[in-house]
Amino acid sequence: MHQLLLNRDIFDEVMLQRLPEARRFVWIVTADIKDLHLDTGYGFEPLLALLSRLVEKGVGVRLIHAKEPGPRFRQHFDDYPELFNSEIFERILCPRVHTKAIIIDGIGAFVGSANLTGAGLGAKHKDKRNFEAGFWFDDQKQVAELMAWVDSLYLGEQCGNCRRRQYCPDPIDEI
Question: pLDDT by residue (tens digit) across 24-69?
């Protein structure tokens, strides 16, 4: 199945319905990352609260982003020691990442234009949100291909040939 998601539908379908249902792992790839809030049934709270609950349930979370998170995200991150003390929460920075993707349990994925920000994927009013588009898909061959590609980014397989290495604050292949 391929499902086109536009604007607020991305938030409703991916962030509110599918993400909280993750059972094994969530991989998130984004260029920009800011403080993003969700109405998860616990009131409006940072995405980090949901990710923390998932990690506490044993769901692995991998977050790949292109630049340092915004100041409010960093401030909230410190409120969730379950994340920074966990071996199943992984976070890397790669300045060349421009992809926006969310893979859930290896059974479905979202790929689209939205960054991990309030205006892109968060609980913003419909008149304050970015105009975003993307697809949710569950074709196993395509999900596996996306996962292999994201895994190669995470493992730093692109680092050796990267012609932007001098701008990389923390080369992955040196971790």
Answer: 999 999 999 998 888 777 778 999 999 999 999 999 999 999 988 9
CA dist list (Å): 69 to 23, 38, 151: 26, 17, 21
| Domain edges within the chain | 2-174
Consecutive H or E run containing 146: helix 140-154
CA distance 147 to 67: 21
Q: How many CA atoms lie within 13 A of 76 on its CB side?
A: 18
User: What is d(CA 83, CA 68) in angstroms, rounded to the nearest whole number?
Assistant: 17
Class of domain 2-174: alpha beta
CA distance linking residue 31 with residue 34, whole number of Å: 10
Total-model pTM: 0.94
Q: What are phi and psi of 93, to 5 degrees?
A: -120, 130
> In the chain, how many H helices and how many E strands?
6, 9
